[in-house]
Amino acid sequence: MGVAELDGSARADRLAWKFRHQAALFARSGKALALFLILLLSAGMAVAHAAPATYSGEAPVASQSEGERAEALKTALAAVVIRLSGDPGILANGNVAAAVAEAEKYVLQYRYQRGTASADSSDATAPALVLVAEFDSNAVDRMLAGLGLGSASSAVAIDTTPTEHRIWLGGIHSAEDYARGLGYLSKQSLVRQSWPVEARGDGLLVRVSVSGGLQRWLDTVDREGVLRVNSASPPLEGIDATLVLNP
């Protein structure tokens, strides 16, 4: 029995054919490419790079509801984390479980498939519907590294107990900067919680709870490029590090 896609892929194929056909009709015009892009954007289609199979997971669902999808994404990401770490009991680690609970932060794309039964169709327990999710390999790797984990061949355990620190975040010149800086902190894979404490001039005093220690977090933040570490040990009482929002 073949696998049938139920997530609108047939409709997407028809739309893609329509766009190609309409673009061909205008091929003699210099506006052909612009027309194609306008049609593509107006349909709300997004292009995503497929994740390696290692970073794909599946989970049975009863429906395509938002609640079912959210739980299925967690189950799918849990399977990926177990596969990468080589540890079936890894979800007993509270920090790992908390990261998996935020599966929607790491998903690139997902689709639904009909569940497959055995050839004799005697398996009455086969799910009617399965969610297949592909996760961002770079984001998942960063998350695992921050938790002191990696592939089964290179996993090195570290203390991932969250620690709380006070940081000064500079370069905040507008409401947009404020939203971008705090938005990044709220989604950064090693940050468990963040609280703005005080705004003064072009900066913010922020409390952050991070996994893996302050230096590991600062190194990760510097690599990601949204914030720049100015000082990891500033001569300021009550401030553990100073950072600047990159333009």
Architecture overview:
By secondary structure, the chain is an alpha+beta fold. Helices cover 36% and strands 23% of the residues. It is built from seven helices and eight strands; from the N terminus they run H-H-E-H-H-E-E-H-E-H-E-E-H-E-E. The strands form two sheets. It has a five-stranded mixed sheet with strand order 5-6-4-8-7, with helices on one face. A three-stranded antiparallel sheet has the order 1-3-2. The longest helix has 20 residues, at 66-85. The chain is elongated.
Write a concise keyword list for the protein shown above:
three-stranded antiparallel sheet; single chain; disordered N terminus; 247 residues; 36% helix; 7 helices; alpha+beta; five-stranded mixed sheet
Number of helices: 7
Rounded to the nearest angstrom, the distance between the terminal CA atoms is 53 Å
Reading the helices and strands in chain order gives HHEHHEEHEHEEHEE
**What percent of the residues sit in helical stretches (DSSP H or I)?**
25-40%
Rounded to the nearest angstrom, the radius of gyration is: 23 Å
Task: Characterize the overall form.
Answer: elongated
Which regions are unreliable across 5 or more consecutive residues at pLDDT < 50?
1-12, 25-51, 117-121, 152-156
In round numbers, the mean pLDDT is 76
Secondary-structure map with pairings?
Elements: H1 9-25, H2 32-42, E1 56-61, H3 66-85, H4 94-100, E2 107-114, E3 129-135, H5 137-146, E4 163-170, H6 175-187, E5 191-200, E6 203-210, H7 214-224, E7 227-231, E8 241-245
Parallel strand pairs: 4-8
Antiparallel strand pairs: 1-3, 2-3, 4-6, 5-6, 7-8
Helix pairs in contact: 1-2
